[in-house]
Every structure is written in structure tokens, then in C-alpha cells.
Specification:
The chain is of the alpha/beta class. The protein has ten helices and 13 strands. It has helices at about 10-25, 75-85, 100-110, 160-170, 180-205, 215-230, 240-250, 260-265, 275-285, 290-305, and strands at about 5, 25-30, 40, 50, 65-70, 95, 115-120, 125, 135-140, 140-145, 150, 150-155, 175-180.
């Protein structure tokens, strides 16, 4: 029987585990040592889902298992190095995180031919302050697909392992859409994160604060610079499209705090290098100036002493 193996102790991983629990999908959870992992999830219908106890140590995964890493990009390399000896049967790996750069890290550890899927989700989940409970805060969907390799998009979603891995995730936490070009979906989410995350962190505000007129100029600058860099890497976005998406998400999640806001509030390492920092890195490779993104990186890093 295929099994989901979920790494980490975060809210989204706990939500996937709760979905697996509700829908009869075999799963195991692997938190970082000494971390507090949710024992229950408050589902969106007020149901309380009790989760299985975390696994003490990993064992060799079967070929039809799926390893899900809902981690932050800066946590990936350490996690993959720890897991590499248990992946001799080459079970599919699903990377689920904010920002970009995780695929490059995974291939550097496991090799270019390892079966990797990239995913992004709009499901909302929050880990409560006690760390023992997670709350399902918003129904969404997950998009999943094969990463690009070089200039070619690996869009053969009919490969058996791709179909089976996405079907297993869809059973646990639907809906899961298997898309031809996950790269564009990830860039679209990155654009939203590049605006909402740093602005809410720097100004200590909920997502809805980004809608205020005083942020019009900086929102536009971030989207404009993003579109310029994206075009250099073969992805064309209109600035108006990007701004519209940012405003829509900020409105729909107006009462939420962004993950970067929460990281700063709890004195944790942020994902700024995988969000605005990723755009700065790509821009530098092409000799493009992105001063607004660079400013966001410097200012957010200045908050973490």
C-alpha cells in the first residue's frame, strides 16, 4: 500500500497528515528532533482530527511511497542529506514550499534524474501558539507538476509515477491539479509572496495592509521588476496581471498574517533569500537592476539580529 511520508512539524504538513487520516491514506510524520509537532488538526467543518504519533526514525521507502517536504527552502538540503540513504528505491519526492530554488537544491543532492515533483498550495493552515494544534484556515487547491530541466519543460504528466503520486496526494487533501507547466504557477505565487511577505513583515501588519494606498508605489515597483526578470527567463507576465493577483490574495487573506511576518514575530529565520532574494540572484546573473527587491532583502535581514 502506497504511503505518504511527511517531513517536518509545520502547519501544511500537519494538514496533509490530517487529510490522510480522514481519508484512509497511510502516512507517517517525521519532525525535526526536539520540535513540537501538532497532535490534532481543527478541520474546516469544526471536526477535530487526531494525528498518529510521529515516527521515531525513517526506514527505507518503497518505490510507490511519496516523500513530501513541506519545508522552508533553507531547510531542504539538510533534510535531503538526512533522507538520501533511505531513498534507494527512488520514491517520488514532492517539494512544497514558498519561494523558489528548492528544485536546484534537490537535484544537487539527489541528481538530475531523481523523480521530483514541485507543488504549490492555496490551502490555508496555521500552527497554534502551543504547537500541539494546527487549524485549517482556508479551503484551497494544490497544483503539482514536473520541474523544467534546462530550456525544456518536463510536462509528460502521463508518466505512471507522476499519476500515482498526484493521485495519492489528491486522496489525502483534494483537490490536486496535475498541470503541464508548474513553473509558471510557482512564479505566479512567488510574485505574490514577493510583495505581501516583506511588506507585512516590515510594517508589522496583516495581509490586508498591503491594500493601503500608501503601498501603491512599492507594490507597482516590485511587480514591474519581477516581470522584467521573469521575461529574461522565458516567462512573460504583465505588470497589471501581477498587481491584480497580489491585490486579490491580499483581499482574500486580509485578516491573515504572512509566514514572513510570523517568522519575524517569533524571531525565526525568514525565507527572504528564496523569495525577493531569488529575484535578486536571477537579476544579477542577467545584469539587471532590481533595487526594490534588493531593498526588501536588506531591510528584512536587518530585522533579524
Amino acid at each position: 500500500m502506497a504511503k505518504l511520508h511527511i517531513v517536518g512539524a509545520g502547519a501544511i504538513g500537519s494538514l496533509i497528515a490530517a487529510g490522510a487520516e480522514k481519508h484512509g491514506v497511510a502516512y507517517a510524520r517525521y519532525p525535526k528532533p526536539h520540535s513540537t509537532i501538532p497532535e490534532t488538526v481543527k478541520w474546516n467543518d469544526s471536526d477535530i482530527v487526531s494525528l498518529s504519533a510521529p515516527a521515531s526514525t525513517p526506514s527505507c521507502l518503497c518505490q510507490d511511497d511519496v516523500l513530501v517536504l513541506p519545508l522552508k527552502v533553507y531547510q531542504l538540503k539538510h533534510a535531503l542529506l538526512a533522507w538520501s540513504s533511505y531513498l534507494e528505491n527512488r520514491p517520488p519526492l514532492v517539494l512544497l514550499h514558498n519561494g523558489l530554488g528548492g528544485d536546484e537544491i534537490a537535484t544537487s543532492v539527489l541528481g538530475e534524474n531523481y523523480p521530483i515533483l514541485l507543488a504549490t498550495t492555496s490551502h490555508g493552515a496555521l500552527k497554534e501558539p502551543d504547537g500541539k494544534t494546527a487549524t485549517y484556515t482556508g479551503l484551497g487547491k494544490t497544483q503539482i507538476g514536473l520541474p523544467r530541466r534546462g530550456d525544456m519543460a518536463r510536462n509528460d504528466k502521463h508518466l505512471p509515477w507522476v499519476q500515482e503520486a498526484s493521485a495519492l496526494l489528491n486522496t489525502a487533501l483534494p483537490p490536486v491539479d496535475l498541470v503541464d507547466d508548474i513553473t509558471r504557477a510557482l512564479w505566479q505565487k512567488l510574485a505574490i509572496n514577493c510583495v505581501i511577505n516583506p511588506l507585512t513583515a516590515l510594517n508589522n501588519m496583516r495581509n490586508g495592509g498591503v491594500l493601503l494606498k500608501e503601498y501603491d508605489e512599492i507594490r507597482h515597483a516590485l511587480c514591474r521588476e519581477f516581470a522584467i526578470v521573469a521575461e529574461q527567463y522565458g516567462l512573460v507576465f504583465s505588470v497589471q496581471e501581477l498587481e491584480k493577483n497580489v491585490l486579490s490574495v491580499a483581499s482574500l487573506t486580509a485578516q491573515n498574517y504572512s509566514s514572513m511576518h510570523q517568522d519575524i514575530a517569533m524571531d525565526r529565520h525568514t525565507e527572504i533569500d528564496a523569495i525577493n532574494g531569488y529575484i535578486v540572484s536571477l537579476a544579477n546573473k542577467k545584469g539587471i537592476s532590481v533595487p526594490t527587491h534588493a531593498l526588501m532583502v536588506d531591510r528584512v535581514k536587518g530585522l533579524v539580529l
